[in-house]
Design goal:
It is a multi-pass membrane protein. One of its GO terms (molecular function) is phosphate transmembrane transporter activity. It comes from Macleaya cordata (Five-seeded plume-poppy). The chain is mainly alpha-helical and 354 residues long. 72% of the residues lie in helices and 4% in strands. It is built from 12 helices and 4 strands, in the order E-E-H-H-H-H-H-H-H-H-H-H-H-H-E-E. The strands form 2 sheets. It has a two-stranded antiparallel ribbon. Strands 3-4 form a two-stranded antiparallel sheet. Strand 3 and strand 4 form a beta hairpin. The longest helix has 34 residues. The N terminus and C terminus are likely disordered.
Length: 354
């Protein structure tokens, strides 16, 4: 995270990993919170596929029988659980990527990405598992509890500490392949879009085109990862809601074909946008956090308390990059042309024209 002739924070330092962790927590927590109603329906479709046999009828049944508030059951587990998971996932991914790059010098980048994402996901799922155990029960068993505060003590009283990690192995079975295939699909999709569709290098494309490529590749990566991880996701719901006592029993009850197809459409609807938004939010948070850290720090001030010319140039560069990122996001969301007029000294100004 560097500016021109200036440094926001040392790359791969504790501060750098802290920014990555916070960015991962905020991006994952907020995006998963937003799709809680779809997640509630997904869990019920997995646990009771006869009653909740489609997306439209499933929503109607939940609304009619349990009220609109039922669509937000488990939101605290979603926000905090996946926030913690996102922090571990993104923060440790950056750490392991640096570690494996230094150790496995002769290996290609794909191997580094696979190993880094898998290693980070192992720890991320250990952190997520207790929250996931509460969430699935609350969403499929209305009388189990209202949230984390009453869900944690009730689960511990009935099943002990093991109840929080009963689904850890299936969770790894779902998320490890998901992470590996997600990163692989994303990288290959980006290469394909630039090489065969746009037929230009990334550096020669506008920020709007780059954003479109990122979103398209992110959605494709989420969809492929969802299909690969769908069997384990169905097994997790079955175990947590006591439809089966073991993984093998769950597989026999659900059936090989249903493992891949049950709740697959709604999971693709869930995961595709979530993965896309997570990367957008994550990168945006890293840029903003880097800017704030630089402006709040005092280690770059001269002896008289003023900014040096070098640091003024660094500030200006950081500000320009953040404004350009904001320009791309606003332009794609609002459909308006957003023009950036940067002054010769920090800060610049943003003008929006219809």
């Amino acid at each position: 995270m560097r500016g021109v002739d200036g440094r926001i924070c040392e790359e791969f330092s504790l501060k750098y990993y802290g920014i990555c962790t916070i960015g991962g927590m905020l991006s994952a927590g907020t995006t998963h919170l937003a799709i809680t109603p779809l997640d509630v329906l997904k869990v019920n479709m997995q646990v009771n596929p006869i009653k909740y046999d489609s997306i439209s009828s499933g929503f109607h049944t939940l609304w009619r029988e349990q009220g609109p508030s039922s669509l937000w059951r488990g939101w605290t587990s979603k926000f905090f659980g996946y926030g913690v998971q996102g922090g571990f996932r993104f923060g440790l991914y950056e750490y392991f990527k640096k570690l494996y790059s230094d150790v496995l010098v002769d290996h290609n980048k794909s191997s580094i990405f696979f190993l880094s994402s898998a290693s980070a996901q192992v720890f991320a799922d250990v952190a997520l598992c207790p929250f996931e155990a509460i969430k699935v029960r609350i969403q499929a068993q209305p009388n189990f509890g209202k949230g984390l505060l009453d869900g944690f003590p009730k689960l511990y009283a009935t099943e002990g500490a093991f109840g929080f990690y009963k689904g850890l192995a299936p969770l790894w079975g779902r998320n490890l392949p998901f992470s590996i295939f997600m990163f692989s699909t994303f990288e290959h999709s980006v290469d394909f879009l630039y090489r065969d569709i746009i037929q230009r290098r990334k550096e020669d494309c506008s920020r709007g085109q780059q954003l479109a490529v990122t979103c398209t590749a992110g959605y494709a990566a989420g969809a492929v990862g969802t299909f690969i991880s769908n069997p384990a996701d169905n097994i997790i719901s079955s175990l947590y809601n006591k439809k089966a006592d073991t993984v093998l029993q769950a597989v026999k009850q659900i059936g090989p074909l249903n493992l891949f197809t049950r709740s697959l459409p709604i999971r693709i609807m869930l995961v595709g946008p979530v993965i896309t938004l997570q990367w957008l939010f994550y990168d945006s948070i890293k840029v903003l956090a880097g800017l704030l850290l630089y402006l709040m720090g005092d280690d770059h001030l001269a002896s008289n308390g003023a900014y040096s010319r070098k640091d003024q140039a660094a500030q200006l560069f950081i500000y320009q990059e953040f404004v350009k990122l904001t320009q791309s996001l606003l332009g794609n969301i609002s459909g308006q042309q957003v023009e950036v007029s940067v002054l010769n000294s920090y800060p610049g100004e943003v003008k929006t024209t219809a």
